[in-house]
Design a protein that fits this description.
By secondary structure, the chain is an all-alpha fold. It contains five helices and no strands. The chain is elongated, with a radius of gyration of 14 Å.
Length: about 110
C-alpha cells in the first residue's frame, strides 16, 4: 500500500466514524461539540493531509465541498434534534446518506488516480 492509499483509507475511516456519530447523536447519543467542530477528525485530515498533499487534484476540492455540505447538514439536523424536532432530524438522515455516498464515490476516484 502506498502513502496515498494509506491517506485515503484514513479519510474513509474518519468519514465513516463521522457518519456514525451523526446517527448516534440523532438517536440520543452524547453530542461532542469538538468532534463536529473544525477540530474534528475529518476537518483535521483535510487541513493537515488532504489540502497539503492533494490540493491540485480537482476531486480533492469536490471532496472538500461535499464534506462541508455534510457539516452544514449535520449542524442543521442536530439543531432540529436539540430543539425537539426529532422526527424531522431523523428524516434528514437520508440527505446524510446521499452526501456520504457522493463523498465515498469521489474518494474512490481519487484513489484510482
Amino acid at each position: 500500500m502506498n502513502q496515498a492509499q494509506i491517506d485515503f483509507q484514513q479519510l474513509r475511516i474518519k468519514h465513516i466514524l463521522f457518519k456514525s456519530k451523526v446517527r448516534s447523536v440523532l438517536y440520543g447519543g452524547t453530542y461532542d461539540a469538538n468532534f463536529f467542530s473544525n477540530h474534528g477528525p475529518v476537518n483535521v485530515w483535510f487541513n493537515s493531509v488532504g489540502l497539503s498533499k492533494y490540493r491540485d487534484l480537482p476531486e480533492m476540492q469536490s471532496l472538500l465541498q461535499v464534506h462541508q455540505e455534510l457539516n452544514s447538514t449535520t449542524n442543521l439536523l442536530i439543531s432540529r434534534y436539540q430543539s425537539g424536532k426529532i422526527e424531522q432530524a431523523h428524516e434528514g438522515l437520508s440527505k446524510i446518506d446521499e452526501l456520504s455516498e457522493k463523498f465515498l464515490d469521489l474518494l474512490a476516484k481519487l484513489e484510482g488516480k
